Task: structure prediction
Amino acid sequence: MKFYYIFIFFIFFYVLPLQAAPQMSVGIDRTTIYEGESILYWVTLIDTQPIDESIVPDISALTDFNIVQTIPRNVSNIHSTQNIQGIRTETTTSRVRFAYVLTPKRNGSLIIPKPNVSINGQQLVPDSMEIGGQSLRATSSGGVISVTVKPPNDQDLVRLKIEADKTRLYPFQPLTVTLVVQVKGLPEKIDSEQSTNPLQVLRDPPKLTIPWANNDTALPKGMVPQQKFSDWLNGLNVRRPQRGFAINDYASDGFGFDDDFFRSPFSLGGMIRQTLLQFASKPVKIQRLDSGGKETTYWEFRFSRTFIPEELGRFSFGPVTLKGVFAAVDPNTPQGVSPRDVYALASEVEIEVADVPQENRPNNYIGAFGTFDWSVDLQPRQAKVGEPMTLTLRLTGQGSTTHVNAPDLSQNPEITANFKVYPPTEEVNGKSCTFTYTVRPAQEGSLVFPPLSVAFFDVEKEDFVTLQSNPVTVEITETKTSHSAPVFGNRQPSFSETLERSEKGLFANMIDSSKAVRQPVDFVSWMYFIFSLVLVYSLFAFGIFVWRAGHSNPKLRRRRGAGKRAKQRLAEVLATRQKSGNPAALFGNDLQNVFFGYVADLTDGVEQGMTTKDACIKLLEFGATEQTVSEVRGVLETLDATRYGGFDLKALDELAEETNILLKRIPKELTLSGNFL
Result:
């Protein structure tokens, strides 16, 4: 019995604490690779307590590798139950895994040192390793893993390189990156005329690993492809009997009608399998020297893709690797050729996306890259003081206008001396941009709109270029002023009614009193009469219900009362002007507010801050015709011009009358469109 208690004491105070200690293991998918290939490396932490999120392995000692973390923190909990001498214990183990893709920077024998991890002040040492799917104890190595990186084959069957049309460029300037694959033609004993594509005789397609041929989300941040990933690959896809390259192991599921199918047509692997997709450009035969210095025919394949850099910095493309079996000259065989394993590597290419130099940058630089033309136009060429005119600035050409800024004309004293300038609208489509301003002449006479100059950056010359427009002369006349009586008064419409008195009684149409006798009751007629009363009452009650529901909705009440409120405000504005003689500018502003308030009531919007553009957009959305909206825009813009003077009472009265006409017309159009119910 004493031994039993000693055993229990040993389990609880010695064995269980040992099992509760945090543990660490490491793993790698393989230990031998070629230069340019990558390996998967992971670190797993295990503890009976939840592992704090701040605990992350320190792998900064891996200086011989480029590191990309694929899974920042993969957490799983494992529940287990133990039964020892009738005592049941339940434990929950927290497991956290960190995974990394390691790409060696050089070939040779490289070391992956153990990661640096500390939990609760305890420095962990890996107690197990997993290498190539095989679990090992790590007590002897301490978690250090050795990796062999083999250099590319010394061969001349395949030449691989990455080309870029430019290695230094500016944001939004197109960049084309091309992978060039040159495959040596078949030996002359097989193809003396060098007319056969060397890929046609291969059983399996050579495998290319191209980093920028992955999904577009894997591209460097700030590098945007001009063509979608799927569209680009689909344009390179080839089908039997043509042969090409496998790219990044892209495959199709289904029936694999290839050589394996015909060798084993009834096997599961021969009938249903993943078939590697094959890709190739149209090959071109070239002449170049082989490893022996002899001029030899090579078949060249080019895989090009264009990108637009949207951010500054340095970007790398590559490396690219190729693995495959090719036909090589072998004098020891009867055919003179034999298959040879080939591994080829194309080193990465670095691209610099530079900013426009700050030095000598003109003040009128507007942010455009490329080569452009600049034009300025002001229409109409004849106008009156205060009338709106349209100023159009247009930059067209080849390059990027994505980040172009509109010139601030309000800071140009030559312009503001004669014109009032309003903020522009912008239309930018990537290669051109148009800025449209509304300007109003402030005085009469022959006015000259001065030349405007802008600067852009010429990426070919790598220098700033300034363009200047021609001056534009316009003829401005003053609005004639006169005084006249107001058009609107306070006359109320009158009407008359004729009332006719009619006296009728029970015997009004009877001459002979003998006919006034007791008549029998027609029950059917009474039933129809009662039913008619009930039906009329029901319809009347339903109408009252609908009327109350509609009038209880504040939006509908506001919309239905819009016309009445607008007419009341218009009458108040006219009456105030007659009594106090409002200046033209103030009277025009009041008329504008009448219309803005009317549109706000119709659309349940806000009157304060409403502009002419806002009012017109809301009316179009609500069902008004384009002709009516055009007239509304003209009235509001003309009212806006009253601040410049030159408008007499008669002209403003005419605008008030036109406003009144529009206030009557708009509800009719909205009713027809179904939006004014």
